[in-house]
């Protein structure tokens, strides 16, 4: 039986960042993957999404600037964009597996099953590992209603050659609103059906309302409290029926009703490894499962964090430091910033206004009134920064077309006592960018 220092089941961001670290050592690893090499983020998640958003953003920009110096809104050519996407990704997919392999790292294509505290089976072979790491990620949740098989998920979305004239998106989280943004910008008539009364739970709800209004103004129908009862195939496409009897016709239905942990068929039950079928594998402060040689990392680890790529990186770095450097201190997550890649974007780091405690204060800045935002037609742009009683920055939220980038300026300011002084003395920001406006905000 071939022996390795690490057996890693899954090849997503949590796995490849552990491999980057291990490359500095002489340690050996086997990576097992049953889907696309590289995992969700580069194949069916963050990367194809941000690639497409890169074209959608300037198109929507011209929509808001139309008649204000721009003659008319630009038109997005979905078919051409997908063609270009497929070309770029075909090359990525050809090369990704071989980019992982080297003299220290072997790869196997297949479903990994843990058979013992140090053994894993894949593609009919058993392998031995000093350490086993489970970064198996999440898979799309499928609605449990008749006809749910007619809906696609993000797994198929980024390869759609044609975009129908009418689309229905089920869900109200990151994926639902990001995909709805892309499809409407490409000319589809989009309806979003959310089962509850809230969208984008991790974000400032005042900004979510602003975003909802702007999406609605562009023609996206957003229906709250609209649980779906069934999806049926019709001569023209599909018909989605809500529990209240309302019917929605569409040429495409996208199920974005959340994601579930990839824990099935991993052999966890046999070894007594604790897990939750939705949230994932139970871990301690070193990301160890209740079997000490077996770790979980990234989205599938029930680590109390949002399921984001930078969190997966932090997890894999911690496992490396714990196993290789004997780090005793438990994992400490930084304040990880997050953003929706809608139009406009909503971004967040640290506390939200709704989480303020006694003594906290909030300061707002109407970014939309600045020359830069006026020039971009981003007149609803706004920023909120939360301070604690000691004057330290404890959170920031922004709605703007650049919020996802802007929020990164606030991550290093979290916990800083005199942020204006810190920013002015330590960070030499370019002008005129949001960075320079920090000075105004902190006066
Ligand atoms: C549409 C979409 C957009 C997103 N956008 C963003 C974004 O903008 N920013 C952000 O931070 N995050 C984003 N995310 C989340 C991000 O993709 C995840 O947080 C990240 O991929 C987690 O990495 P991971 O390594 O834990 O798991 P994954 O990337 O999911 O990788 C897990 C891998 O394990 C494999 N696997 C599972 N079980 C087995 C098994 N038994 N044997 C072998 N292989 C197995 C899977 O095939 C998969 O390739 C997005 C997600 C989606 C769906
Ligand atoms: N920009 C980003 O960073 C980004 C983008 C996409 C995904 N992600 C990550 O991936 C995770 C998964 O994203 P997601 O959008 O799939 O999940 P999510 O948890 O953000 O949203 C799921 C949505 O589906 C709704 N829902 C749940 N059950 C439903 C039902 N039966 N019928 C209708 N709606 C239902 C929920 O209320 C929620 O609005 C996110 O939590 C996030 O961590 C991040």
Give the DSSP E fraction (strand runs of 2 or more residues): 15-25%
Q: How would a textbook summarize the main sheet?
A: 7 strands, mixed
CATH architecture of the largest domain: 3-Layer(bba) Sandwich
CATH topology of the largest domain: FAD/NAD(P)-binding domain
Instruction: Specify the overall morphology.
Output: globular
Query: How many beta-strand elements?
Result: 24
Q: Strand pairing plus helix content: what structural class?
A: alpha/beta
Number of helices: 13
Poorly predicted runs: none
Bound compounds, each kind once, are: flavin-adenine dinucleotide, nicotinamide-adenine-dinucleotide
**Radius of gyration, rounded?**
23 Å
What percentage of residues falls in helices of 4 or more residues? 25-40%
Q: In CATH, what is the class of the largest domain?
A: Alpha Beta
Total tally of structural domains: 3
Walk me through the structure.
The chain has 443 residues and is an alpha/beta fold. It has three domains: 3-140 and 260-325, FAD/NAD(P)-binding domain; 148-257, FAD/NAD(P)-binding domain; 344-442, Enolase-like, domain 1 (2-Layer Sandwich). The protein has 13 helices and 24 strands. Strands 1, 2, 3, 4, 5, 6 and 18 form a seven-stranded mixed β-sheet that branches. It is globular, with a radius of gyration of 23 Å. The relative contact order is 0.12. The mean pLDDT is 96. The structure holds flavin-adenine dinucleotide and nicotinamide-adenine-dinucleotide.
């Amino acid at each position: 039986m071939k022996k390795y220092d690490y057996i890693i089941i899954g090849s997503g961001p949590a796995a490849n960042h552990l491999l980057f670290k291990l490359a500095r050592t002489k340690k050996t690893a086997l990576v097992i993957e049953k889907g696309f090499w590289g995992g969700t983020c580069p194949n069916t998640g963050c990367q194809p999404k941000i690639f497409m958003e890169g074209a959608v953003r300037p198109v929507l920009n011209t929509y808001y600037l139309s008649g204000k110096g721009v003659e008319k809104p630009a038109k997005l050519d979905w078919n051409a964009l997908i063609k270009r996407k497929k070309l770029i990704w075909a090359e990525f997919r050809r090369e990704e597996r071989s980019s992982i392999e080297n003299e220290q790292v072997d790869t196997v294509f297949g479903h990994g099953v843990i058979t013992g505290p140090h053994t894993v089976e894949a593609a009919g072979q058993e392998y031995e590992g000093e350490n086993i790491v489970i970064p198996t990620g999440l898979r799309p949740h499928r609605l449990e209603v008749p006809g749910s098989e007619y809906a696609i998920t993000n797994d198929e979305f980024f390869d759609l050659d044609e975009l129908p004239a009418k689309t229905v998106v089920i869900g109200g989280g990151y994926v639902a609103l990001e995909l709805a943004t892309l499809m409407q910008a490409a000319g589809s008539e989009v309806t979003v059906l959310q089962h509850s009364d809230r969208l984008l739970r991790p974000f400032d709800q005042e900004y979510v309302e602003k975003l909802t209004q702007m999406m609605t103004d562009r023609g996206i129908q957003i229906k709250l409290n609209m649980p779906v009862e069934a999806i049926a195939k019709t001569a023209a496409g599909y018909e989605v029926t809500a529990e209240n009897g309302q019917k929605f016709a569409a040429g495409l239905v996208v199920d974005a009703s959340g994601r579930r942990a990839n824990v099935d068929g991993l052999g966890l039950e046999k070894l007594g490894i604790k897990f939750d079928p939705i949230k994932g594998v139970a871990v301690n402060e070193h990301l160890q499962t209740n079997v000490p040689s077996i770790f979980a990392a990234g989205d599938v680890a029930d680590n109390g964090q949002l399921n984001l790529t930078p969190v997966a990186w932090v997890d894999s770095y911690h496992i490396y430091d714990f196993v290789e450097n004997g780090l005793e201190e438990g994992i400490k997550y930084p304040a990880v910033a997050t953003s929706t890649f809608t139009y406009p974007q909503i971004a967040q780091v640290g506390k939200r206004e709704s989480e303020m405690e006694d003594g906290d204060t909030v300061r707002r800045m109407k970014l939309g009134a600045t020359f830069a935002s006026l020039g971009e037609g981003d007149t609803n742009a706004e920023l909120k920064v939360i301070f604690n009683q000691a004057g330290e920055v404890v959170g920031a939220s922004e709605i703007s077309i650049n919020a996802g980038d802007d929020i990164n300026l606030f991550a290093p300011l979290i916990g800083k006592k005199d942020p204006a002084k810190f920013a002015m003395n330590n960070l030499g920001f370019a002008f005129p960018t949001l960075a320079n406006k920090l000075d105004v905000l902190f006066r």
